[in-house]
Amino acid sequence: MVEVPDALSTLFSAQIETDGDRYVVEIPKSEVSHGAVSPGETYRVGLLSQVDAGSSTAAPTQAPKQDTDPGRVDTGVPQPPVDEGEIRNVTIESLGDQGDGIAKVERGYVVIVPDGEPGDSPTVEIETVQENVAFASVVDNDGRTV
Q1: Mean pLDDT per segment of 10 residues, for the chain of length 146 residues?
Q2: Residue 58 and residue 13 share a domain
Q3: Residue where a domain terminates, one of 39, 67, 95
Q4: What gap in Å lies between CA 79 and CA 110, rounded to an integer?
Q5: Could you list the residue range(s) of the whole structural domain that residue 131 is in?
Q6: Boundaries of each TRAM domain copy (predicted)?
Q7: Residue 75 included in any domain
């Protein structure tokens, strides 16, 4: 079984393309737009081969986690790592343009928290989930119910 470190920034599928005397792995635009990676930065990359269903020589892999939401369709594109109604502990890292707190969770996915201040670690309820951002409300801030 492959052990995945907590420091994993992003996980996606891509094909390796040939470009002259080099090979290219394209990063999906969504990974940049939600802050998992930034152009011009250097990253460590790990590659896992795709298992062919009919191949007996492929390395064994862990079965993908089945999504418990029957409304979600597997499109091959990573889904947001949060669900509406989910309760989460987050840490506010910065402030957005409108003064709301910005927290990041798995894969750099952004959660907007109204009235959050950098360094706050509130418990929030995810209210609205979009492709690259979620909006949450504080349900408990440092032991005080809001």
Answers
A1: 62 81 83 80 75 45 46 66 93 91 90 93 94 92 53
A2: yes
A3: 67
A4: 13
A5: 87-145
A6: 81-140
A7: no
In 85-122, the DSSP E strands lie at: 87-89, 92-95, 101-104, 110-113
Burial tier of 106 (Cβ tally within 10 Å: 0-12, 13-18, 19+): middle
Query: From CA 1, how far away is CA 138, in angstroms rounded?
Result: 37
Residue 109, judged by CB atoms within 10 A of its CB (0-12, 13-18, 19+), counts as buried
pTM confidence score: 0.49
In a domain, 115, yes or no: yes
E-state strands within the chain:
16-19, 22-25, 87-89, 92-95, 101-104, 110-113, 123-129, 133-141, 144-145
Same domain, 125 and 95: yes
Amino acid found at 10: T
Structure tokens at 12: 């996606």
Q: Answer yes or no: is 109 within a domain.
A: yes
Cβ burial, residue 124 (10 Å; 0-12/13-18/19+): buried
Are 134 and 79 a contacting pair, CB within 8 Å? no
Residues 1 and 63 in one domain: yes
